[in-house]
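User: Show me an example of a complex going from sequences to structure tokens.

Assistant: Sure. Here are the input components:
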Amino acid sequence: MCLAIPGKVISLQPSSDKTNIPGKVSFGGILREVNFCFLPEAGIGDYVLVHVGVALSKVDEKEAMETLNYLQEMGELDELDSEQEKL
Amino acid sequence: MKYLSEYRDANLVDALLRKIKRTVTRQWNIMEVCGGQTHGLVRHGILEMLPEKVQMIHGPGCPVCVTPVSLIDKAVELCLHQDVILCSYGDMLRVPGTEMSLQQARAKGGDVKILYSPLEAVEIARKNPRREVVFFAVGFETTAPANALSVVRAKQLQLSNYSILSAHVLVPPAMEAIMNDEETQVSGFLAAGHVCTVMGLREYEPLVEKWKVPVVVTGFEPVDLLEGILMVVTQLEKGEYRLENQYKRVVNSDGNRSAVGLIGQVFEYRERDWRGIGEIPSSGLFVKDEFRDFDAMAKYQLTVRPDQTDTECLSGDVMKGKIKPPECPHFGETCTPEHPLGAPMVSSEGACAAYYQYSMKS
């Protein structure tokens, strides 16, 4: 039920209606109508997390890269450690 | 696809598993609260790859599973006897009620529609002014903003034929109830990432302090789950307890304030009965009086009594983490997705469904 997946914002319609800011999001090429009323700051090209038709949060690219880089480094260091242990 | 495949990377998974193995020296039991995470752990074979000293306990984070039988009975009654268009997320359809499921009600002529979003139900109400439309609003905090939004939109559109049957439940009171259980073996939690996307992190601070238990807000992909587990065991091994956020790319500490604001506008917190578990204080969202025209409970004068305990289904023990699904004598025998005894066998977040789907094949 709490399944929410990241997709890329393709279009946003200007709207004065605070409860309905329509836009389109691509999930690996499949387009869906999404309401951006909880995420008016989103822009075209952003990756956003969508759940049951509403966008809930922007995916933070900087945080994502930092985590992946950190894990990559941890993996490499760990490999070094275990090889040194074998010696 | 961006932000998905990177978190399924085999090298990172291996590195994290090695690091977890090198970190743990003692037995730890970690509960993943969310059923979506349970499915991730089982589907990707992570439970078998973890060292024996790390046991995952599957939590109650399946809103469909904890929806009381009596509420399903009300939904069945609405579509069979009140000529209502009953709209629901697909997960709810096969969950057994006292006499029948919504799927069986549909076979008997009930007008049941499976929808992706409650906003679609508002559209159905707008296009069918002569029919009553009820949305079965099941879910945790992640789903609450969309369900609250459907009520506000219906009011704005001056629809008098739309209401919701709220079965909303909240995560932190359930975690509190688990820690309060004298038999609990939980030594740390993976908290549900998407719930925190909406609510933020603050609600978990008191839980961490009171029970001296590590809580790590975690995502759903294999790399996320393993990093979350590593963060919990690292704390446990050092004798620490803190609230940490593994899922920073999506969750910020404040959550989504406008979504939280709308939840507070439409709903209030009250005691809620959880199927298989019992009543938990302040654990449910109920439609506020000022929106009573959009509350199916008020509109159809429904009353809900606490459920009688299921005699056969052991879902309560499964959801409290006391047994694993295959330890239930009915699992895969008298209880299957085609003929379920309880909700965890048919919900896409149910622990029994996860084990049945991914382990029975192997």
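The lines above are the inputs; the final block is the predicted structure for all two components together. Residues 315-356 of chain B form one domain.
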